[in-house]
């Protein structure tokens, strides 16, 4: 059992509170770039992701990595999350996981 | 999801009668938990083989996370599961052909649902897996975490209800009276009181009381969420959250569309 290095569930808005910390989020891929991608968070904010990408990207990806600014993440793991994903549910989950129910997560 | 309402009844029975703990073990369903919750589970019972999370007994758990460190042996497969809140050791005994077959689909780096028995060995917790299946639709991950939250909220609500039942309070509780509306509703007259959590206390009660008011209850097509927000002078977002909670608790339901709600019962 090891809970020493959790990744906080964030959306665009919450990212700024966790700069320097390990985070995880789901973004819609707007534009793949060299060495990363530009994504749109579930609360419609732009997030730049830098790091190793899977060979091909689906519409949505999960990014786990370290937040290096309020709008960017240095990714450790990028996972394809398919072409359909309920962004509003995920967005609400982020708020719950950082609000009243934080203690269940971090 | 495989968890059901009955497990909570089992949980509350356990709280009142420890002697029947062993007998009730078999009635427990799968409890959705985050790995962080599992790490904080305390051991209860005389033989220290029972676990307790948020005060309720837990035997079988369901966890969703990313697989790593797969080690295949003749008799078993072990792997680590990471759900973002922690890492958990899992062991799948290969007893039946089904076990081997199912584990063939489990590869490094994929997300899986793991159902299993929570166990402890030399102070470390792990899960004896009886089912491991890959996640196919990633909304399942969001759903799992929401289910963990829901399970926690319900378990703590059941306990609070028990504690409150023990401290019988004959004073009826009333919501904050809004001067311009002047509607009054005694919550104690309702059969199921929405015990809410810190931070959302008054709002759920107020929304429910408004919808249960006889005049509003009588409106067949339900009350529009904007009207509720307006009349209670609360932000729409808070109203929507309350409506969702109340709907999940079976106290209200949506009528003609997702913006119209009606209570299941009127207040007296």
From TrEMBL, chain A:
GO terms for molecular function: DNA binding. It is found in: Nucleus. GO terms for cellular component: nuclear lumen. It comes from the Eukaryota. The keyword Lipid metabolism does not apply. It holds the Pfam family Rep_fac-A_3. Keywords: Nucleus. GO terms for biological process: DNA recombination; DNA repair; DNA replication. InterPro entries: NA-bd_OB-fold, Rfa2. Belongs to the replication factor A protein 3 family. This is Replication factor A protein 3.
TrEMBL record, chain B:
GO terms for biological process: DNA replication; double-strand break repair via homologous recombination; nucleotide-excision repair. The keyword DNA-binding applies. GO terms for molecular function: single-stranded DNA binding. Residues 61-134 form the OB domain. Its main location: nucleus. GO terms for cellular component: chromosome, telomeric region; DNA replication factor A complex; site of double-strand break. Belongs to the replication factor A protein 2 family. This is Replication protein A 32 kDa subunit A. It comes from Ambrosia artemisiifolia. The lineage of its organism: Eukaryota, Viridiplantae, Streptophyta, Embryophyta, Tracheophyta.
């Amino acid at each position: 059992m090891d809970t020493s290095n959790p990744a906080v569930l964030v959306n665009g808005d919450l990212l700024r509170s966790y700069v320097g910390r390990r985070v995880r989020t789901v973004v819609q891929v707007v534009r793949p770039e060299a060495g990363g991608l530009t994504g749109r968070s579930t609360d419609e904010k732009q997030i730049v992701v830098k790091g190793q990408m899977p060979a091909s990207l689906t519409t949505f990806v999960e990014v786990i990595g370290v937040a290096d600014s309020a709008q960017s993440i240095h990714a450790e793991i990028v996972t394809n999350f398919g072409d359909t994903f309920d962004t509003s549910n995920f967005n609400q989950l982020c708020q719950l996981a950082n609000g009243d129910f934080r203690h269940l997560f971090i | 999801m495989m968890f059901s309402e009955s497990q909570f009844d089992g949980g509350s029975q356990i709280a009142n009668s420890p002697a029947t703990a062993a007998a009730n073990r078999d009635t427990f369903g799968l409890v959705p938990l985050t790995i962080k919750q599992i790490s904080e589970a305390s051991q209860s019972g005389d033989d220290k083989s029972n676990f307790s999370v948020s005060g309720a007994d837990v035997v079988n758990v369901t966890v969703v996370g990313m697989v790593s460190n797969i080690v295949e042996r003749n008799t078993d497969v072990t792997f680590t599961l990471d759900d973002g809140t922690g890492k958990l050791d899992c062991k799948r005994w290969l007893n039946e052909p089904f076990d081997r077959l199912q584990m063939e689909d489990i590869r490094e780096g994929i997300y899986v649902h793991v159902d299993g028995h929570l166990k402890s060995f030399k102070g470390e917790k792990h899960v004896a897996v009886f089912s491991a299946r890959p996640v196919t639709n990633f909304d399942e991950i969001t759903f799992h975490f929401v289910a963990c939250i829901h399970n926690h909220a319900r378990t703590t609500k059941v306990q609070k209800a028990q504690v409150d039942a023990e401290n019988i309070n004959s004073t009826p509780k009333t919501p904050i009276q809004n001067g311009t509306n002047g509607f009054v509703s005694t919550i104690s007259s309702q059969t199921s009181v929405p015990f809410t959590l810190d931070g959302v206390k008054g709002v759920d009660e107020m929304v429910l009381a408004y919808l249960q008011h006889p005049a509003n209850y009588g409106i067949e097509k339900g009350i529009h969420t904007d009207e509720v927000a307006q009349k209670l002078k609360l932000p729409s977002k808070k109203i929507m959250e309350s409506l969702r909670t109340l709907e999940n608790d079976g106290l209200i339901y949506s009528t003609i569309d997702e913006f119209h709600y009606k209570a299941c019962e009127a207040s007296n």
